[in-house]
Amino acid sequence: MTAHWRNPVGTLLGVFVVGVAVLVALLLIRTYTLAETKRVWLDKGALEAELTQEEREQLLEALKGAIRIPTVSFSETEQNNTALAEFGQYIRKAFPLVFSSSLIQHEVVGGYSHLFTVRGSDSNLQPYMLLAHFDVVPATPEGWEVPPFSGEEHNGYIYGRGTIDDKNCVIGILQALELLLKRGYKPRRSFYIGFGHDEEISGNYGAVKIVEKLQSREVKLSFLLDEGLAVLDGVIPGTKRPIAL
Ligand SMILES: *[C@@H]1O[C@H](CO)[C@@H](O)[C@H](O)[C@H]1NC(C)=O
Ligand SMILES: [Zn+2]
């Protein structure tokens, strides 16, 4: 999600800042408080949902490391291609099970975008798709309390461009999948994951190419989840109740 966040509209910016704080706080609270044992019930039985201390640290480090790669879309025609390529290497290293699982096919699309096909056991179930993007709009150090590509953690908050738009989703999806695979998860329903590299500048080489690939395979999706953001109350004209984007 993009263009309208770039307009310095006071109310939207306020909500945006609150959104940053709330989402990052939630991430950290979840990360540090999942102490008691919990189990997630799936069709094959119970999977351990508790994170070990090591997994918690990996979760935070994975996001911080992703923030430090300046995958900036400077303009409609200019991106940091070095950083985009580096990001691809980074996720391969950070999520080894995702990239080695026999259930998962990984493809680079449009030069730098990523398409994952996760094969479920029941081919009668219509697949779904999760989407996110890893390019970010430019950020200069002015106005930032810490350098925008530092990924520093202060007082329980991770700072940086992309922490909520949208590397949080990219890393969240990959981390969840990595941990599920580690616990032996095998999905019944197939699903796709698409990570775009040029969402902030229209997605012509990422999202569009991914769609073309899926169309050529005659993929029909049951639903699709893309980048969301804060719950907005009284911000979107014509709405009277809080709206989850
Ligand atoms: C592009 O990204 C690389 C890291 O992959 C970084 O070293 C370089 O400074 C970036 N270039 C610009 C202009 O931001
Ligand atoms: Zn976005």
Q: What layout of secondary structure does this protein have?
A:
Elements: H1 3-6, H2 10-33, E1 39-42, E2 45-48, H3 53-67, E3 73-75, E4 78-79, H4 81-94, H5 96-100, E5 104-109, E6 113-118, E7 128-133, E8 153-154, E9 157-158, H6 167-182, E10 191-196, H7 207-216, E11 224-225, E12 231-232, E13 243-244
Bound molecules: 2-acetamido-2-deoxy-beta-D-glucopyranose (NAG) and zinc ion.
Any overview of this molecule?
InterPro entries: Pept_M20A, Peptidase_M20. Keywords: Hydrolase, Membrane, Metal-binding, Protease, Transmembrane, Transmembrane helix, Zinc. Pathway: Lipid metabolism; fatty acid metabolism; Amino-acid metabolism. GO terms for molecular function: aminoacylase activity; metal ion binding; peptidase activity. The chain has a domain at 72-235: Zn peptidases (Aminopeptidase), CATH 3.40.630. The protein is built from 7 helices and 13 strands. It has helices at residues 3-6, 10-33, 53-67, 81-94, 96-100, 167-182, 207-216, and strands at 39-42, 45-48, 73-75, 78-79, 104-109, 113-118, 128-133, 153-154, 157-158, 191-196, 224-225, 231-232, 243-244. Strands 5-6-10-7-11 form a 5-stranded mixed sheet. The protein has a two-stranded antiparallel sheet with strand order 1-2. The protein has a two-stranded antiparallel sheet with strand order 3-4. Helix 3 (53-67) packs antiparallel against helix 6 (167-182). Bound molecules: 2-acetamido-2-deoxy-beta-D-glucopyranose and zinc ion. Residues 1-2, 133, 165-166, 199, 227 line the site of zinc ion.
